[in-house]
Task: structure prediction
Amino acid sequence: MHALQYEVTLPADYDMTVIRDRVDRLGHLLDGWEGLGVKAYLIRERGRYGSPVNQYAPFYLWNSFDGMNRFLWGGGFQGLANDFGRPPVRQWTGLAYERGSTSPASAAFAVRHRQPVPEGVELGPSMEAAVAEAVRLAGEDGAVLAAAAVDAHRWELVHFSLWDHESPKAEGDLFQVRHLSAPGLDRLPRGRQW
Result:
């Protein structure tokens, strides 16, 4: 598993209807993308659910590098870059993935929590703790899924979870899920990734 996210932060007075309409019009294009586990089309709106910004920030869990690379270099990402400029793309190597008991069709909110891996800590136990957190999150009421991944260049952990309600038992940035493309959700490898 491989995680990927980019963020398009928009002006405070930006009409987020433009983003909602864009997702409604184009979101289905990845519903059958080979190699994609799940893409959550995420938005934050300034003043709603505690968000300080307007933002479009899709989050991906990939089953294959081929699928991810085909998206980045083969045309999928180019449409966004044409319309909004080319944002930095963050990538993390998968540590763990767990399914919750809630149906993916009910995913309404997402939480993304990034945190540094402190200098001097033992890496094995730190990664095991990240795996345990993914298991805990997936076991909470209303959880659709939970994943943990690491960027070993920046030494940053990311926890990502999808929920059917706006008050999940997870810390981090809260996003609204506008659409969910999940062609390979059942093929994402569950559990610890090493």
Q: What stands out?
A: The chain has one domain: 2-187. The domain at 2-187 is CATH 3.30.70.100 (Alpha-Beta Plaits). The CA atoms of residues 37 and 164 lie 19 Å apart.
